[in-house]
Structures are given as C-alpha cells and as structure tokens.
Amino acid sequence: MDYLIVIEETKTGFSAYSPDITGCISTGKSKDEVEKNMKEAIEFHLDGLREEGYSIPKPHSYAANITVPV
After folding, report:
1. In the chain, which stretches have pLDDT less than 70?
2. With left for phi above 0 and alpha for psi between -120 and 50, is residue 53 left, alpha or beta?
3. Domain holding 10: CATH number?
4. What is the model's pLDDT at position 12?
5. In what order do the strands lie in the sheet with 14-17?
6. Which of 3, 26, 34, 35 could bridge 41 with an S-S bond, Cβ 3.0-4.6 Å?
7. What total number of domains does the chain contain?
8. E-only strand ranges, 1-70
C-alpha cells in the first residue's frame, strides 16, 4: 500500500509522519534518511498492529499544492 507521509524540516534535520497511521513518526538528518526511516517505522507499526489483532488502516489522505498570488 502507498501511505502519504508529510516531511517537515526541523532545526536539526527532518521529521515525518503519516496522517493515515496515528502515532507513526520518524526523524532523519536528510530527506533521504527520514524517508527510509519512515518506511521502516510504518512497516514496524503495521507489524505491531497485525500481532495485536488490529486492522491495518487503509490509506485515505492525499496532498495537493495550491498556487496563490503573493
């Protein structure tokens, strides 16, 4: 499944979360690192949900860029 992740720059690198998976977050020193770490975090989180007998959340979020005059 494809899950949307939101990546934000921080003072020390980058952080990421998925609006489709509550509580699943990660960090990294670069964009590539935070994406890799977030993929691993999602896989780990979903494995935990399966082990506990919870259903896997279906992706439902999307992103769009809106152009406005400034």
Report:
1. none
2. left
3. 3.30.160.250
4. 96
5. 6-9, 14-17, 25-28
6. 26
7. 1
8. 6-9, 14-17, 25-28
Asked if residues 6 and 16 have their Cβ atoms less than 8 Å apart, the reply is yes
Q: 70 in a domain, yes or no? A: no
Question: How many CB atoms sit inside 10 A of residue 41's CB?
Answer: 21
| Residue pointed to by tokens 């896989």 | 43
What's the predicted TM-score (pTM) here?
Answer: 0.89
What is the rounded CA–CA span in Å between residue 25 and residue 58? 17
Question: Which residue segment(s) compose the domain that 26 sits in?
Answer: 6-51
Instruction: Give the model's pLDDT for residue 61.
Output: 96
How many angstroms from the chain centroid is the CA of residue 68? 26
Given this model, what pLDDT does residue 58 score?
96
